[in-house]
Design goal:
- The complex is a heterodimer of chains A (162) and B (282).
- Chain A is mainly alpha-helical.
- In chain A, helix 2 runs antiparallel to helix 3.
- The radius of gyration of chain A is 17 Å and the shape is globular.
- The mean pLDDT of chain A is 80.
- With 282 residues, chain B is α+β, with helices and mostly antiparallel strands.
- Chain B folds into 2 domains: 99 residues, Phosphorylase Kinase, domain 1; 170 residues, Transferase(Phosphotransferase), domain 1 (Orthogonal Bundle), CATH 1.10.510.
- Helix content of chain B is 33%, strand content 17%.
- In chain B, the strands form 2 sheets. Chain B has a 5-stranded antiparallel sheet with strand order 1-2-3-5-4, covered by helices on one side. Chain B has a 3-stranded antiparallel sheet with strand order 6-7-8.
- In chain B, strand 4 and strand 5 form a beta hairpin.
- In chain B, helix 6 packs antiparallel against helix 9 and helix 8 packs across helix 9.
- Chain B is globular and about 60 Å long.
- About 4% of the residues of chain B have low confidence.
- Classes of the chains: A mainly alpha (162), B alpha+beta (282).
- Chains A and B meet through helix 4, helix 5 and helix 6 of A and helix 1 of B.
- Chain B: It catalyses: L-threonyl-[protein] + ATP = O-phospho-L-threonyl-[protein] + ADP + H(+); L-seryl-[protein] + ATP = O-phospho-L-seryl-[protein] + ADP + H(+).
């Protein structure tokens, strides 16, 4: 029975992973670099790494699933920026019930090249492509569980390594 | 939606005037489904309609946060005791999505009424309660709560006696609402779900709702469970459930515990002695 549980977990996990080949594609790497820059610049979330983590995770999955690997060169930097910012907005929406895109844009006045309309269109495109699998099954899911164990016994506090 | 034909109303959406319909599948496969629609972007004319979306934050653009969270939660709800999401259809240029869920033969309320003889089998009650708790435990294990458990949201397949929980943000029924929610707490919680499980268990045992009456009835709850101390509850409960075995009485008193922090949790309830003699059924 344990084996079948593992099998089920791995079956499910594949819905939550970037498509294979993505991590070795040179063009994809360049775009990912740009996206990580954009996401870390605009996340502005005070030591709370879950938001940029989620955003990058959505970006990887969207880029790897949306396009056949050969298709990467056709992307322009502006498009990558819109995708990255949209992923960031989706991450915020998953984490904060009071988030609004309008406020997000007001607080980041240098994002002049990106309009709310572009973001709305891209949001729907991304959630459709990710098939609404927005809650990753990763080691992150287990952090609260282990923190709780550690805290009660040894008095540790959660802390990130980066 | 051409493959389906409307087949009655099963409830009303939470915070909305919209009704939720059941549909019968056309063709040889038969079976019923429930359809729930979500707006993916606020309509321009939303302010002039009376839809739920109209009351959404006007600052909110793109996919509404609640929709994003709810659908992504539904995607991970894969469990044998929770209804399955069978398809998603995008419409109106992707501004609307319809989620289609499988339905079962009937809801628990109808089952208790129409199959009175079968439903009075206490072994079956135990089997159904166990399945209900498994489904609820699955919700709670991923950090969610159902929020509106009641016999209309609990579905039964007669042939194999399988139970499935329907989870589509319907209006909560006041008769199954935990006392802390009636007293002003607004957040639905796992503990509140467990109180509802207690009410449903009671209804299966006696084949009538535990708390009857028109209003959300805190007085009824206190009349039964109320101000008395915890020690004397089982005494009163045993009068209400004369045919229930002692382990069942103990479990029901733990499910209906007034203090949400002391109320039994789903995973603990599954290990309760009441289920000791249940042969399952993986």
């Amino acid at each position: 029975e344990i084996e079948s549980n593992y099998e089920r977990l791995f079956d499910m996990e594949s819905s939550y992973l970037a498509a294979s080949g993505y991590s070795r594609n040179r063009d994809a790497m360049l775009f990912r670099e740009r996206a990580v820059l954009i996401i870390s610049k605009y996340a502005q979330c005070d030591n709370f790494p879950l938001i940029p983590y989620l955003a990058t995770y959505y970006f990887d999955r969207y880029m790897s699933k949306k396009n056949p690997v050969l298709d990467y060169p056709r992307y322009k930097q502006h498009e990558i920026d819109v995708i990255a910012i949209t992923c960031l907005i989706l991450a915020w929406k998953m984490q904060n019930l009071n988030f609004t895109t309008t406020k997000f844009l007001v607080e980041r006045p240098d994002l002049t090249e990106i309009t709310a309309e572009q973001l709305v269109t891209m949001e729907i495109r991304i959630v459709k492509e990710l098939d609404w699998y927005m809650r990753p099954i990763t080691a992150f899911c287990f952090v609260p569980y282990f923190c709780q164990k550690l805290e009660s016994k040894y008095g540790f506090r959660p802390r990130t390594i980066c | 939606m051409e493959k389906y034909k409307r087949d009655g109303v099963i409830g009303k959406e939470r915070n909305s005037l919209r009704q939720i319909h059941k549909y019968r599948r056309q063709g040889s496969s038969g079976g019923s489904v429930v359809v729930k629609r979500f707006m993916l972007q606020p309509k321009l004319d939303a302010l002039s309609t009376r839809d739920e979306e109209a009351s959404a934050d006007p600052e909110e653009t793109g996919v509404p946060i609640k929709t994003l969270r709810q659908i992504s939660l539904l995607k991970v709800m894969q469990h044998e005791n929770i209804v399955r999401l069978v398809e998603m259809n995008y419409e109106d240029g992707d501004s609307l999505v319809r989620l289609v869920f499988e339905y079962a033969d009937m809801d628990l309320r109808n089952f208790l009424e129409e199959y009175a003889a079968k439903a009075s089998d206490q072994k079956l009650v135990k089997k159904l309660l166990c399945q209900l708790l498994r489904g609820v435990a699955h919700f709670h294990s991923i950090g969610a709560a159902h929020g509106a458990l009641n016999p209309k949201n609990v579905l039964i397949d007669i042939g194999n006696e399988n139970l499935k929980i329907l989870n589509i943000a319907m209006d909560a029924d006041a008769l199954y609402t935990a006392p802390e929610l009636l007293l002003g707490s607004t957040e639905s919680s796992p503990a509140a779900d467990m109180f509802a499980v207690g009410c449903i268990f009671a209804e299966m045992v006696n084949r009538r709702p535990l708390f009857q009456g028109k209003a959300a009835n805190i007085n009824n709850i206190f009349n039964l469970l109320g101000t008395p101390t915890e020690e004397n509850w089982p005494g009163k409960l045993s009068e209400v459930f004369p045919n229930l075995e002692p382990h069942g009485l103990d479990l029901i008193s733990k499910l209906l515990c007034l203090d949400p922090s002391k109320r039994i949790k789903a995973c603990a309830a599954l290990k309760h002695d009441y289920f000791k003699d249940l042969i399952l059924l993986r």
